[in-house]
Amino acid sequence: MTVASDVKTCVASLKSAQASLETFALSTQNQEAKTLFTNAAQQTQQILQQVESRVQQLENEEPQYKGF
């Protein structure tokens, strides 16, 4: 695997984790747990944005990886 495909796999995993955290936040009645899951989902979103930025850099540097 190339670095670009590894980073894109990481993006997919982060999106999955974020979705799970959001689902947990919505499904719990415990306010403390809801806050914990919501905060974790927000932090995951921030990390996701940084990693997606890196994907853009990789695609600009190596156009053959664009769209994979």
Give an overview in words.
The N and C termini lie close together (12 Å). Helix 1 packs antiparallel against helix 2. The protein has one domain. Helices cover 82% and strands 0% of the residues. With 68 residues, it is an all-alpha fold. The longest helix has 31 residues. The chain has two helices and no strands.
Brief write-up:
This protein has 68 residues and is mostly helical.
Query: What are the low-pLDDT stretches, counting only 5+ consecutive residues below 50?
Result: none
Tell me the overall shape.
Answer: elongated
Average predicted confidence as pLDDT: 92
| Series of H and E elements | HH
Determine the structural class based on helices, strands and strand pairing. mainly alpha
Strand content: under 5%
Rg value = 15 Å
Percent of residues in helices comes to: over 70%
The profile of the biggest β sheet is: none
Q: Helix segment count?
A: 2
- The figure for the number of domains is 1
Cα distance spanning the termini: 12 Å
Q: Compute the number of strand runs.
A: 0
Question: What is the strand and helix layout of this fold?
Answer:
Blueprint: H1 3-27, H2 31-61
Helix pairs in contact: 1-2
